[in-house]
Amino acid sequence: MRLLLGAFLCFSVAATIGLGSTWVAVSRGVAFGALTIGAWTARPKAGTADIDPYARAEIERNGILPIGAGDGIAFVARTDDHGRPLDGRCEVMVSGTTPQARFFTVTLYDGSGRLIANALNRHGFTSQELIRRSDGSFALAVAPRARPGNWLPTGGVERYLLVLRLYDTPVGISTRAGRETPMPAITTGRCA
Amino acid sequence: MMRWLLWLVAGVLLGGIVHLAGVLYLPRVAAQDAYLRLSPISAVNAVVPVGPPTPAAASMPFMDPAFATAVCRYDLARGPLKLAAPVSQAYTSVSFYSRYGAAYYALTDRAAGRRVIELDLMTERQRSQMPEEEDVTAADRLIVTSPTETGLIVIRALAAEPSQMAMAERALAAARCQTH
Q1: Which CATH number among 1.10.3470, 2.60.450, 2.20.28, 2.60.40 corresponds to the domain B34-54+64-179?
Q2: H/E element, A26
Q3: Quick check: A114 contacting B, CB < 8 Å?
Q4: Is any Cβ of chain A less than 8 angstroms from the Cβ of B140?
Q5: Residue of B nearest to A4 (CA)
Q6: What is this structure's pTM?
Q7: Could you report the per-residue pLDDT of B128-169, keeping only the tens digit for each?
Q8: DSSP character for B34?
């Protein structure tokens, strides 16, 4: 009887810990070898054949095709520079410059990777569409209401994330945060 | 008391094994991975356009809306595959994914250096069976080896401005992938 109870305890602990931690790892994501610059995080190895098992399980479960390393790299931001979650009811400024790349795009998604509906049908900007200052830097307003200049509508959702994709870029596995990798700053302004 | 603690420690250790096995096994059983999502809208060894993502529907999460996309779901069982993709005006890339989601190779129009990206895709075994001389005479032929017999080739063309989308889609419509 004792043996049976013991085995039952053992198996229930194993099932809870094993399945629970797998679920957490796959849905929240475990970032091995992540490259974090400011609020932006990329996983350079996700686009190669040596993708780590956690990243692979996550992309397979969610049905994502990662950008191949020879194509480009994707940086994701879920918070502003101060760690505050990106809120679609606030005015968020994304400003600065990006690392060297032939093209880049900035796109707004909800937490599960869907585009967010808005009257303008604008879900992102390409490097060619952004209006820039004379020094080459840009300022992009991510806000629920119209702004002059570069405006990316949020549709007023509570949480969203921004993905900055650099195409044909030297940024990759051997890149470190530093002077060659200037990423745009993200600051939260007034909230509605 | 001690006995219960031992059972608990054994449970934690077993839990760790379950966790590792789950993470490693998950890609094989994922019912919603990109390959299965694209299966109903793609064809074997043919290039099929993938509609642009909209808020209401998208073939996959986290698709870049600035790109026109086409996919070739390949099966190398009957022999190597030939891919030809004309480059669009702005930026074109070709990415190769194994059956279980690893992006094992990708190249851009600039790396290809021509107006048409042309390459041969084969398995390790098919490559080793290739006649030696042929390998030499076609020195500039680009050969990619696939780690799995099936997988996806995703061809993407950038529309740097929305007005260029139609042109990017036209460039992809001319892409071909077929077995010899």
Answers
A1: 2.60.40
A2: helix A2-28
A3: yes
A4: no
A5: B7
A6: 0.89
A7: 888 766 655 555 678 899 999 999 999 999 999 999 999 999
A8: H
